[in-house]
Amino acid sequence: MMQVTLVNPPYPPDAHQHPPFMPLGLGYLAAIIEENGYDVNIIDCQALRLTVEDAKNELQKRKPDLVGFTSTTLTYKSALSIIRAAKEVLPDCLTVIGGSHVTFWDEEALKECPQLDIIVRGEGEVTFLELVKKIEKNEDFTNVIGTTCRKDGQIVVNSDRPHIEDLDSLPYPAFHLWPIEHFNKYGKIIFPVMTSRGCTFWCDFCSAVRMFGRRYRMRSPQKVVDELEFLYKKYGQDQYTFYDDA
Question: Per DSSP, what are the bridge partners of residue 157?
Fold first, then answer.
């Protein structure tokens, strides 16, 4: 079975170090991969205060077939540093990155980092799962929609993937793969919860509508309540923050 490691890269050393939050996007990616029978594990550099060198050592121990990254603009450079380090110790592994920054900087990121293999643009769950399935079967993955990658020395920008219509179809984020105790703030663990995606507005300064679309898509109220109840029963925590675009 193919092994997948997902990495939350560290903040730059000179950046403000606020208490870590569980990365919701990686949580959903891990959940959908695990739900489909793949071996997935997490390296959260922010939660564990790991450096690029620490992450490199962890990857060398785990020896994944595929390493996936998320990144914002703030963590973009550190993500690329770990990608380069991953290829040093695991030259045959495939490296994949997603998130808002590379969605709009896809071709430039591939040019900047030859060790980076694939970029997942926009909403990533369905795209990432399709990639993993094709890679495991040794099938051509360069035509997967929602990705930017290389083929025959050229950069290939595939068409955008349609947004997920039924958000209730997504599994709960796989927070059980995280070191939950490292997210304790003032005696409480605050769990991020997504109730909707997309935004009807078009603010110049915001990437949300460009990532998740201008149509407002909602999970059903019952599904959200079920998730809150699940988190409370599993972890005994009663504080949540809602990570929505609007």
Answer: 148
Structure tokens at 111: 């040019």
Q: pTM score > 0.85 for this model?
A: yes
Instruction: Dump strand ranges (E) for the chain.
Output: 3-8, 39-44, 66-70, 94-98, 118-120, 147-151, 154-157, 184-185, 188-193, 196-197, 217-218, 239-242
Residue found by looking up tokens 């560290």 in the block: 10
Is residue 107 domain-shared with residue 150, that is, in the same domain? yes
213: left (phi over 0), alpha (psi -120 to 50) or beta: left
Determine the pLDDT at residue 17: 67
Over range 201-222, report the average pLDDT: 90
Q: Based on the fold, state whether residues 76 and 196 are members of the same structural domain.
A: no
Q: Any idea what the Cα angle at residue 29 is, between residues 222 and 208, rounded to 5°? A: 75
State pLDDT tens for residues 22-63: 999 999 999 999 999 999 999 999 999 999 999 999 999 999
The more confidently predicted of residues 171 and 21 is: 171
Is 109 found in the same domain as 26? yes
201-210: burial string, b at 16+ Cβ within 10 Å, e else: eeeeeebbbe
Q: How far apart are CA 55 and CA 50, in angstroms?
A: 6
Q: What is the DSSP letter of 20?
A: P
Same domain assignment for residues 107 and 221: no
Q: Are residues 41 and 106 in the same domain?
A: yes
